Amino acid sequence: MELPAGIVVGVETPRDEAAFTLSEEPSDDRRVVTVDSVADTLDELEQRCRRWPQAAAVCDDVLRAFDPARSTFAGVITESLAYSTLQSGPEFGRWLAERGPAQVPESPDPVVAQRRDGRLSIEFNRPQRHNAFSTGARAALLEALEVARLDPSVEEVVLSGAGRSFCSGGDLAEFGSFDDPATAHLARTRHSPALVLDELTARLGRRCCARVHGQVLGSGLEMAAYCGWVVSTPDAVFGLPELALGLIPGAGGTVSVTRRIGRWRTAYLVLSGRTIDPPTALRWGLIDAVE
To answer: Has this prediction a pTM greater than 0.70?
Structure first.
């Protein structure tokens, strides 16, 4: 079936050229997503692609353009340029108008880091906002990660979140605060936790670990997926909700999530806006353990 954004969704039979294939039967094929009702899911996808056709089409383009064997940097740059394009588009503009003015509450210590011997523990610390990721949180996270990147005596990094959630994604009150998309692109790519986490995982492997719980959404999921080992509690919920803002993942998720579960299931998470539970995330390879 071809959706309004020109995206092809396969039904039952896996197809490489499709964005993904829907089936009501269980499948280990990364191109296939198992759903309760193919017909209902297609109707929902059609409605979403009609409402956000530009973001849906750009998402499909970016995921097809990324080669998991290529460098993380190339993928992050491609994603960010596409994200910036959508920031200047009508769909994101409509979302901003519907949201209206917003003010980000102050968080004095948005990230807390603690060093004990060779272990560096980094905790998101905005529990009243489900650890929504803000500019301040990004700066504090980068400062903590730089310690691990530059100090070879750091042998383990553990990323976690305070309160009820690991990280609910970007702080929506802060969206649209940059003066222009070009400035936002430079901020995302010159100060990117994704690139540092990727470098640390290359050095530390599964000793670069994310321990997740509660809401693990948007940028929270995207950053966790860069870690060499992701451990989830049974209550976690995983998703990529950016399409509803007229955007695509912008914290490196088209790279990190795609490497873990393939472009097909990544596309499904973005285009459908649906969340998945820990057993599904474990089966797909999005996480590595449930404890």
So the answer is: yes
